[in-house]
Amino acid sequence: MPILNRAAELQDEVTAWRRHIHSRPELLFAVENTASFVENKLREFGVDEIVTGIGRTGVVGLIRGRLGDGTTIGLRADMDALPMTESTGKPYASTTPGKMHACGHDGHTAMLLGAAKYLAETRNFKGAVAVIFQPAEEGGGGGNEMVKDGMMERFGISEVYGLHNMPGMPLGHFASRVGPIMASTDEFSITIEGRGGHAAQPHKTIDPIVLGAQIVTALQTIASRTADPLSAVVVSVTKFNAGFAHNVIPEQALLAGTVRTLMAENRDMAERRINEICTHLAAAYGATARVRYARNYPVTVNHATETGHVLEAATDVAGAAQVVGNVDPMMGGEDFSYMLLARPGAFVFMGNGDSAGLHNPGYDFNDEAIPHGISYWVRLAESRLGA
User: Roughly what angle, to the nearest 10 degrees, separates helices 208-219 and 264-285?
Assistant: First the structure.
């Protein structure tokens, strides 16, 4: 099944929805206008059941098939934008300074709305499709909030699927893999307490800046000397704040950063080693170091059977030559991981063509991808529900 004729017919309409959402970006859970837009569209389509306020501001629509009873599968899109200033200069660019859709969630939402319209028109399946519109993917853990709110049980969802556009991947291409596909996203903060004093008398101080520099260097050995070289571990120090004058050694230095892993044991190891390195180096200098380690999104792990369904649907739409079944994992994070902990499912990447990268002020979702995304969602739903 190549791109659906109906999906191609819907492209202009769905593009208009996408650009409407793009011009009105909202952050984290404060996506009330976007959620209202989604709700109104689902009502226009005649979706059987629409529930708002799941996971605070999420929306779920239930579309029942005409071929009899069966299971329910979930298809998920994210709705939130990023706290960035857009530089595209497009006519539909963000109208809100400091906010923009720099990750394509406007495109994800619009494509799933397009699929919902098609599925509500045809209903050529058994059971039901739950279209899930999630807030707060960009750091708020909205996926976890929807799961904790009982979404899976309330709608009887037995499998769940997610999609993300990928700049640099050719238009019309898809890619996925069994197992870890995106990393866990932990954060750490380190507070170093030394003894301040005159910069001309460093021997009377305990310099937290020198100690901080040693800690930054030592943390790099977690990936290079503690982790298996064949496993992926990233430890990045992204903040180093200390001092206020040229001639004063400060009392305190503050470091912060992120840890990305694809395996639970490496996540545990990295947290342990950060604490050990900071504690023992600080003791050697006569200082103290306090570590705050926060575990955020878990590893996004695709289930084997459901990844097979994803690749089959993508192949039906795009052709085998345009589908990669063992793509390299990404070290970015994704809170769809929480839904995959709650139910079997899989996550897939879809090509956005030659565009600026994600989280870039020049990024824009490629509207030519819309028919591909709609067709993929429809094929996946109908094939899973016995069309």
Answer: 150
Taking alpha carbons only, the member of 101, 168, 182 closest to residue 138 is 101
CB 324 within 8 A of CB 173: yes
Structural domains in the chain plus CATH codes: 5-182+299-384 (3.40.630.10), 184-297 (3.30.70.360)
- E strand intervals along 124-232: 128-134, 157-166, 174-175, 179-182, 184-193, 197-198
Taking only the tens of pLDDT, the chain with its 387 residues reads 589 999 999 999 999 999 999 999 999 999 999 999 999 999 999 999 999 999 999 999 999 999 999 999 999 999 999 999 999 999 999 999 999 999 999 999 999 999 999 999 999 999 999 999 999 999 999 999 999 999 999 999 999 999 999 999 999 999 999 999 999 999 999 999 999 999 999 999 999 999 999 999 999 999 999 999 999 999 999 999 999 999 999 999 999 999 999 999 999 999 999 999 999 999 999 999 999 999 999 999 999 999 999 999 999 999 999 999 999 999 999 999 999 999 999 999 999 999 999 999 999 999 999 999 999 999 999 999 986
268: burial class by Cβ within 10 Å (0-12, 13-18, 19+)?
Answer: exposed
